[in-house]
Amino acid sequence: MNRFAALLDRLAYEPRRNGKIRLIADYFRHEPDPERGWALAAMTGALTFRHAKAGLIRELIAERTDPVLFALSYDYVGDLSETVALMWPAPHGRNDMAAPPLSVIVDAFSTMGRSELPAVLASLLDRLDETGRWALLKLITGSLRIGVSARLAKTAVASLGTLTPDEVELVWPGLAPPYEELFAWAEGRGERPQTDDPAPFRPVMLAHAIEDADFAALDPADFRAEWKWDGIRVQAVRAAGADGRHVTRLYSRTGEDISPAFPDLAEALGFDGALDGELLILREGRVQSFNVLQQRLNRKAVSPKLIAEFPAHIRAYDLLIEAGEDLRDLPFTTRRARLEALAAAHPGMRFDLSPLVPFASWEELAAARADPASHGAGADAEAVEGVMLKRADSPYLPGRPKGPWWKWKRDPHTVDAVLMYAQRGHGKRSSFYSDYTFGVWAPDGELVPVGKAYFGFTDAELAEIDRFVRRNTVNRFGPVREVTHTPEEGLVMEVAFEGLARSTRHRSGLAMRFPRIARLRWDKPPGEADRLETLERMLGAPEDASRPAARRAR
Amino acid sequence: MRPEELLHSTPQGLYSPVGDFHVDPTRPVKRAIVTHGHSDHARAGHGAVLATRETLDIMAIRYGDDFAGSTQALPYGERIEVNGVGVTLHPAGHILGSAQVALDYKGCRIVVSGDYKPGTDPTCAPFEPVACDVFISEATFGLPVFRHPDPAEETRKLLDSLALFPERAHLVGAYALGKAQRVIALARAGGHERPIYVHGAMERLTAYYAAQGIALGEVRLAREAKPADLAGAIIVCPPSAMTDLWARKFPDPVTAFASGWMRIRARARQHGVELPLIISDHADWDDLQDAVLATGCSELWVTHGQEDALVHWALLAGLRARPLHMVGYGEEEAETGADVAVEPSAPERLV
Ligand SMILES: [Zn+2]
Ligand SMILES: [Zn+2]
Q1: Is A22 within 8 Å of chain B by CB?
Q2: B265, A79: Cβ pair inside 8 Å?
Q3: For each of chain A's 554 residues, which pLDDT tens digit applies?
Q4: FRET partner for B203 with CA separation of 20 to 30 A, picked from A245, B45, B81, B310?
Q5: Domain A413-540 is of which CATH architecture?
């Protein structure tokens, strides 16, 4: 456990994706089975622990330390798990007992009764080092944040040999901790694990963003277009298991099983096969904004009330499997025809077809993209993010192959905002102020922060902003600098973003989706930047905000 | 006699009315005894300075040869009298030349420990407990959350990272005097044989350490290096340089920071550190207790740091104890532990 804890500790500080993958792979290379498998389970969220409450941890430390020293320490450190991990008195001075492996800890926590928890936890803490105690306390209080996704951990497994992450993803649903056969396969020592999961995930096909310059080389006649919906890309799979019972699963784009969050959808899938589509909330046949979907995602417990209030729905793009037949090598148009026939055979189900958008030239498609409402999307136009272009002859390929599929997003919204705070970046950018918090003018004449952006600018622009920040600092808070932002003096940034949502976390009451710096407006005095009312107008749909559910959205 | 008659705190620092001298005064005074060369303890402009040879040399490097009216070097363990007060210097184990100042007068013994750490450090003489009636200690890391790990293990983290990311420069923030040279010596002890690069601000001090016979291996100036030399190299620089323009010449660096403060995650994160190395030149919580008890003192005075916690412990341990609430100390630690704010001058100034 101490070595796994050291890895978690290192990961928590490593900002780079590739750096994280190498650290995890290095750990896998040096840690034997089954310990590394349990570590993989912990990182992919496959472990279920009996959780301990903060109160228990306080009791344990109170039995072992002076209350004044504990209070001074907790006050200084500011985090309970960390304070306890650092203060915990190792028995007999320094710790020389063998540290318990993760497998022993997992076993202890999954089998013990509630009354045994204090004694078991205390004896584990006695045998771990500071970092080990920190990681254990974070794990069992459910507050471990290390910035590692399941996908990243699987990518690290793949990197042990010559597998691709998608290959690991394919066998993953049939595997269980401690994953010995998976490691053997990844290291070239064993066969591909046999998955007996009847409803596995198939790696999804993704599109490249199209640039204006790309169109010249493309013939409109080779492509089909459909709306790009602003929801969650999902794969819905249903199949009969060996026992004849049907298994239904809903996967995220990265292969995460999200069925438990959408039991209503899983139940409603009435045929065997695998669909690629967009998960949306529909009310009275109308697609709701991403904002509304977000409200359902934010809720931990899935109650019948939530399901009734936020009915989930799949708008289907593609059909990968039908009744056991793999369609992925067939051309898009053939798959599309099979999908249309399937939808026609199952009317009234919780899925429908994402319609094709007719066009004969790129100009016609541009017109549809600019105004989806009058080109078929009708009342749902607000949930359209842009259009997808798919070659009529394209097979369904895993990953993001360049050429067959393109996404052509609608022009983003922009607003002129004023730079308020700048924070130093990481890695290559650690000596640059590269993360920006910007604001717009509130009715009271004050600037109110509306978002944070850390990309969209060129290296030359970054250097200019950095110089501005260093020369116009009015306050410092650790790595953050507050810069001059009066109506007369300051830096105006044109910020582009994909959408707006109400948010109680932000003082402005709104949150931006994907904000980025579109342009620097050195020419513009901050007093002429946009006002909060402008953003409020863009947000529109005030009825969403007045619903009790919306107010609870985080 | 009451110990306060031999030594007490004043706004300038600790002062002996009998001996008419200050210890580590924070402002220019007539006569000063200086424990070690860190800038919060050793200031320029005193009339006369008494210190170890190494401390005097370090002060001359930092402030110029005329940093005081007159100087007197006193070797460890040798006793002299200043206006009738016995003065002896003992190793403090903090940095090269660092000393504890033992005063004796009419049977009363007071030890001013300055900054100190027990344990091994290849760059200086080891800390030596000195019997006394009153022990004066700092408490920078005076909370039970501070238990410094083995510095060799921390160094291993740095060397492991070099092995895992051999194409990236490893930028290690370390205080220019003492910590920088210790990090270099630790890397050597850990088996790192490649040249180590340093920032211009630590060039002369590092050369001085080497001239005193401390094995640092091949040390080069970072500003003279070609980018290709720096892949997989250790570059030691003052913490403030990690965030200014100086750091930009290194391609995709791993930023490490060697400090006792790195024990606290929020502190490390606040600095954007990617590889915190818990390497401290100060006593940790256990060290402080051991050091106090080893002197056999009946009274503990705490100069600065986490005074409340250390005084609380001492009272529970049956000692008389009180905080002195002295200001002006711990600033070099503050630079290591806090932001670049201590250096508000133009960040555009290069190397
Ligand atoms: Zn010092
Ligand atoms: Zn000091």
Answers
A1: yes
A2: yes
A3: 889 999 999 998 998 899 999 999 999 999 999 999 999 998 987 776 667 788 899 999 999 999 999 999 999 998 999 999 999 997 754 445 678 888 888 888 777 777 888 888 998 999 899 999 999 998 888 777 777 888 899 999 999 999 999 889 888 877 888 999 999 999 999 999 887 778 888 888 988 888 777 888 899 999 999 999 988 899 999 988 878 888 899 988 877 788 888 888 877 788 889 999 999 999 988 998 877 887 887 777 788 888 889 999 999 999 999 988 999 999 999 999 999 999 888 876 788 899 999 999 888 888 888 888 888 888 888 889 899 999 999 999 887 888 899 998 776 678 899 999 999 887 777 788 999 999 999 988 889 999 888 887 888 889 999 999 988 988 887 788 999 999 888 999 999 887 788 877 777 888 887 788 888 888 788 988 999 988 888 776 443 333 333 322 32
A4: B45
A5: Beta Barrel (2.40)
Return the residue in B140, B141, B143, B145 with the most chain A beta carbons within 10 A, the one to mutate for interface testing: B145
B216-220 CB contacts, 8 Å cutoff, 24+ apart: B216/B181, B216/B184, B216/B185, B216/B188, B217/B184, B217/B188, B217/B193, B218/B194, B219/B184, B219/B195, B220/B195, B220/B196
Contacts of A130 in chain B (CB under 8 A): 147, 149
* Contact residues on chain A for B335, CB-CB shorter than 8 A: none
Is B309 in Cβ contact with A68 (below 8 Å)? yes
B344 contact residues in A (CB cutoff 8 A): none
Write down the CATH superfamily of domain A2-140.
Answer: DNA ligase, ATP-dependent, N-terminal domain (1.10.3260.10)
Determine the distance separating the centroid of ligand 1 and the alpha carbon of A325, expressed in angstroms: 74
Q: Taking CB atoms and an 8 Å limit, are A87 and B309 in contact across chains?
A: no
Q: Report how far residue B1's alpha carbon sits from residue B104's, in angstroms, rounded to the nearest whole number.
A: 12
Phi, psi dihedral angles at B234 (to 5 degrees): -90, 130
Structural domains in chain B plus CATH codes:
3-145+281-334 (3.60.15.10), 151-279 (3.40.50)
- Tell which residue, A31, A33, A29, has the closest CA to residue A4: A31
Of the residues A228, A300, A305, A428, which is catalytic?
A228
Size of interface A-B (CB pairs under 8 A): 96
A228 is an active site residue: yes
* Parallel/antiparallel/unpaired status of strands A480-483 and A413-424: antiparallel
DSSP classification of residue A246: E
Domain ranges for chain A: 2-140, 208-409, 413-540
